[in-house]
Amino acid sequence: MYAFLNVPKLGVDWHPFSIASDPKNPTLDFYIQVYDGKSWTSGLWWIIKELSEGEELIVHVMGPYGSSVGDLREFTDAIMIGK
C-alpha cells in the first residue's frame, strides 16, 4: 500500500511513499530514504531537523492506495519482490 504526502512548507507537490505500518495500526508509518542535493526528501529532512521542540509539522496524506499483503499465515507459499 502507498499514500501521497504533501508538506505545505515544501510546496504544493505530492509525493508517493510506501506505507510501512500494519494496516490495523492506528497510525501511519513511512520509511523515507533521504536523497542528497535539492531533493524533496532532503528538504523534508532539514525541515524536521530544524523544528523546535513542541512545534508541529503539517503533513497532508492522500490515500491509502493499493492493497495490503494480508495475513501471510493464511498461505503456504508467498513470493515478494522488492527493488
Question: How would you briefly describe this protein structure?
Answer:
With 83 residues, the protein is α+β, with helices and mostly antiparallel strands.
- One letter per element, helices H and strands E, the order comes to EEHE
Low-confidence segments, given as residue ranges, are none
Share of β-strand residues: 15-25%
**Alpha-carbon distance between the termini?**
15 Å
Number of domains: 1
Number of H/I helices? 1
Q: Indicate the radius of gyration in whole angstroms.
A: 16 Å
Shape: elongated
Biggest sheet strand order reads 2-1-3
**Class from helix and strand fractions:** alpha+beta
Largest sheet: 3 strands, antiparallel
Rounded mean pLDDT is 87
How would the blueprint of this fold be written?
Elements: E1 2-6, E2 15-18, H1 40-49, E3 60-65
Antiparallel strand pairs: 1-2, 1-3
Account of the 3D structure:
This protein has 83 residues and is of the alpha+beta class. It has one domain. It contains 1 helix and 3 strands. The chain has a 3-stranded antiparallel beta sheet, with no helix packed on it. A hairpin with an 8-residue loop joins β1 and β2. The longest helix has 10 residues. The radius of gyration is 16 Å and the shape is elongated. The two termini are 15 Å apart. The model has no long low-confidence stretch (mean pLDDT 87).
Which properties best describe this structure?
single chain, 3-stranded antiparallel β-sheet, alpha+beta, 1 helix, 83 residues, elongated
